[in-house]
Amino acid sequence: xxxxxxxxxxVAAWEHELPPGGMFARTILGEPLVLWRTSRGDVVAxxxxxxxxxxxxxxxxREGDDVRCGYHGLRFDPTGRxxxxxxxxxxxxxxxxxxxxxxxxxxxxxxxxxxxxxxxPARLPDNYSCDHPEWRYRPGYxxxxxxxxxxxxxxxxxxxxxxxxxxxLGGTExxxxxxxxxxxxxxxxxxxxxxxxxxxxxxxRPLWPYEGAIDRWLTYDFTLPATLLMRSGARPAGSCxxxxxxxxxFHSCQALTPETAESTHYFFMEAHRADRGxxxxxxxxxEGLLAAFREDREMIVAQARxxxxxxxxxxxxxxxxxxxxRFRRLVEQRLAAEVGAPGASVDEPSSDQPSPExxxx
Amino acid sequence: xxxxxxxxxxVAAWEHELPPGGMFARTILGEPLVLWRTSRGDVVAxxxxxxxxxxxxxxxxREGDDVRCGYHGLRFDPTGRxxxxxxxxxxxxxxxxxxxxxxxxxxxxxxxxxxxxxxxPARLPDNYSCDHPEWRYRPGYxxxxxxxxxxxxxxxxxxxxxxxxxxxLGGTExxxxxxxxxxxxxxxxxxxxxxxxxxxxxxxRPLWPYEGAIDRWLTYDFTLPATLLMRSGARPAGSCxxxxxxxxxFHSCQALTPETAESTHYFFMEAHRADRGxxxxxxxxxEGLLAAFREDREMIVAQARxxxxxxxxxxxxxxxxxxxxRFRRLVEQRLAAEVGAPGASVDEPSSDQPSPExxxx
Amino acid sequence: xxxxxxxxxxVAAWEHELPPGGMFARTILGEPLVLWRTSRGDVVAxxxxxxxxxxxxxxxxREGDDVRCGYHGLRFDPTGRxxxxxxxxxxxxxxxxxxxxxxxxxxxxxxxxxxxxxxxPARLPDNYSCDHPEWRYRPGYxxxxxxxxxxxxxxxxxxxxxxxxxxxLGGTExxxxxxxxxxxxxxxxxxxxxxxxxxxxxxxRPLWPYEGAIDRWLTYDFTLPATLLMRSGARPAGSCxxxxxxxxxFHSCQALTPETAESTHYFFMEAHRADRGxxxxxxxxxEGLLAAFREDREMIVAQARxxxxxxxxxxxxxxxxxxxxRFRRLVEQRLAAEVGAPGASVDEPSSDQPSPExxxx
Lengths: 361, 361, 361
Known about the structure:
homotrimer, alpha+beta, Rieske Iron-sulfur Protein, Naphthalene 1,2-dioxygenase Alpha Subunit, Chain A, domain 1, 31% strand
């Protein structure tokens, strides 16, 4: 792993994770961050490491909009500047901690991990359903003890729905049998799939107890640093596309934020139309989603163990990997651009070409 | 640790560990393996890592004699060749996983970890009592979080019976006091010991409740990669050797299989004559053996901790180490031959010579 | 971490930790030690690693004043010389384990970790209150999974009492507000602080339930390798110093002994005058002290995590760090002298100067 893309907005937390009046600590890209809200409602994100003896500021206490370190009492304002040192009159000009640009953006607390001058609100993701009266969901979080890019790989190839999620999200081998359309986006890829005439997955039941054959469809953008925004749904098999009537529709927002090179935060939700179902429906969908995402995690953890047993072993690129290979190449280009060096690599060299043909022994 | 001897049969499992219709996963020499039986009863051992995204095949599902990966659905036949890729017509010729020669040999599932062309059934161990109507036993397994060679050292010097197993297998300091005969074998060493006129160890009781003094004897071959085959027994002190009559006799088969450089699988059993005792006797012997082998493990784990605190610290070779020093040298020769280099070393340089005499400070 | 100061007495154990007739094992400076008392009452400290196969001698058995290894039965006398090898007549002259000079010194079991020829009883610490009829205490021990020098830093800057121990030992921000006097000692530093007119800390209550304002004072020597000896106390605010009358007085003895580069033994006690209070008072003080020292440990563990996330990141030296910077420089000088090289470093370069002034971005 040659590093992380830094010039990007990362999800640091769900808005509800920030405790009123308190602080919240989370490690992102290997850096400890402390987050809180000022009295005006602004979100503050500082390096969670006092410049003095490196204690986490999050173990200290809020004082108004400031924070006081719980080790030796240095006080920092929301810009990261030290404004008080007990027993000391002159505050060194170098007494400060790093400040990260931060905003609450539709219930996602977003932090910019690169050069603060370049923090561009225009690059915030369009996770509209996270805060929209027409959509309803329960927010989800899972912690992974694996590198982030193995999880991105998973999200970039939905053929795994047929196998990892045979009894949850998938329900049919037809998903894997159908090749999706993959389009290039400026900051990622767009993946679209139509799966006609299949049984409904178990996971639809709480919202749409239809038992006949259905036509499924989904289309998602997977963009830097690692955000998935997806529309998906189904209608009775053979019925008109966009013809209204019976059916079900979802909007899902998911984001991966590396904690360290070897661990990852996974934020996820899948929203349904607010005018369908009640609180129990929303809860049932969340439970189904969580069960499925735990299936992913079990598989990816097992995969990561295999990677550790034989680091650097090349994988065999297949046609189904088109989206993930394209996305990996994009990450590599961005990493290389950020470090100013050409050789950056996420994990192993990527290739749109299938691996060189060596017949099996 | 300069590596493992690869051109050898290793015990991968007890036969009963292979679940009917299912699969069994075990890591051997740092490589993940998946094992199963075909409908014809043959044992299959494949690399437990799909060539596509490196997921363990053992997390997938059996389909007839094949296995289908549980991540993206690639299907492999028992030779390791990929025979189906969902959504893909052309299967790359390089789509395969490594196959390991494997056989069930007298209830031991054996795999050949080296070049498959050289897998030689003539080199399978003579663990006859593992599957013989005249012998009865309960199979044992222990997992060690230590390098394999520390356990081999233990098995190559039975003087430890007097101390580690004073209240279980040993029962007398006389075992350590008597030097065994050590003979060179083509692939290992033969160790023989006669211990006259000692009290019976507790561990004999379930089978032979004799309370007088006994003459004990044992002889074992310890051969590459790390297999112990031992005949042992006892008779009333002073009675004729091989003169029939009262006494007790055992045959023990034990094998070490490195899991990684730092952990080991230990397969063991000690069989008694089937015409003596009942099921409770067999169970009692097994429990006694297990208790004793846990004593070994506690000692070896403590020894391994000391080795980690001071890696490379030389040990003091003593006359009682004759068998283990010879075996270590054999391993080093074999490792050097396999890698084509002379300097291979198991852990530290071995020597038949006692260490240079430096008086204590 | 460039190593440990070796030519020094370290606390290996509280006297009561040595079991009568048995042995006690503890790892110090990365070396395993076994300790016991001879029939004459002398303390023996040997390397806890048999010279033969490196098993810990502490897993063996005492035989008179000797110890017999529990693996293959080698017997060692209290000087570390091997005096018996089962089955072997000639004992190699090199068969011995390292002996460490050891004494019980006022209930502290002290071992000299450097060249035994230089073990100088004159350098034992003056921990008189550990064994004195006029003082009473309960001995304490905590294990730290952090490097020792982070704990030494903590003990060298008591301004943390105002923040880490606001509700236990501290009770007022005034402690941090007042700069202590720091004096150089041949082997360490002396730190003195007077804190007038503050509320009494909770922790005094069991001994002195005075609720008015008090004048607090403390003075301690922190000397190599890492020993704190402190007098402290308080009297009603404004009353005469040393004028007798009402008040409270303590003597505290604390010592850090590195277990490994990444873990530490912490021995501590704080004694009160024996003519004040009863057993419950002593117990109450101990419980208060233990609660406070757990507060330190939580903070230092969190600090150590931050250090691991960004190893080598420089800290910002402030005036309050005067004592710890001086002590670190002393350790570095001693380390350099011991290894004969100038560049030894505890963790990061120390400096009495504040860090170069770089204005915050």
